[in-house]
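Quick start: what a row looks like.
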Amino acid sequence: MIGLIQVVIGLVFLLLLLSLLVTTIMELISSMFALRGQNLEKAIRNMLATGLKEGELFQSFKSNALYKQLSNYRGNAKSRPPSYLSAENFQSILMDLILNGEDSGKLTQKIEELPNEELKKVLKQLLNDAGYELEEFKTKMRNWFNDVMDRAAGWYKRNIQILVTFVGLVVAIVFNADTISLYQRLESNPEELKEIVSMAEAYAKKSDLGIQSGGTVEQQWEQVNNLINDEINQAKSPLGLGWHPEELQGMTPSDWVIKVLGWIVTALAVSLGAPFWFDLLKKLVNIRSSGNQPG
């Protein structure tokens, strides 16, 4: 039983390291392509324009001084959408666009002048629910924004999950991290298993994963390189990660099928996320420690 737990600890440790790498790569991709900002703007565009079509009001929203100030600029490069917008800022910008410099007493009239019929209906309903009280109307607008952002977060999470699985598959292929063959390797090599378990136990003593979100593209690249050089390369030899030409000789089509299946298993496992594997590693290490205690 103790031997099986050790093998599982070794596999969980590997999946944890690969999950950390995928998470860091995803942060890099998110920074490079402003994925969170794009998701935010898509949600706002759906609120202010008809369907996915960018209307005048949405363009005016993006041109608002407050919104532009919240956007990220890189030298003379094109502005990038902010990854986050508070409900208060959304309400402030939209009120400024609706009133267009007019007094708030003309709010009902200005809403009627809006070009988008669906937006007009929403704002009139919120105004009616607020009893035509200005401050209550602003609160209703903020709540509306928060509700939409909750759904947008769900869209983002589902889309990112697909991308995480794909990146996990790429990482599994690059490092030849075939879960099936790695299990067999650890089970049949006690010395290598012992080395990996020692590394896993040392890692399990960490208070947290130290995952850093945000930062510049350069900082994300540095995190990826540090993770590969400091963590994964250390475990690469005992785990047998990487491509070894001698092992490819004589592989049959059925061997390749099993290997591809192993990569897919790795990708799906990695998509569960580093926190999942870190918590599981801690529990397994505690179980093993308890099992090693004298009765």
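That is the whole record. Residues 134-174 form the longest helix (41 residues). The radius of gyration is 26 Å.
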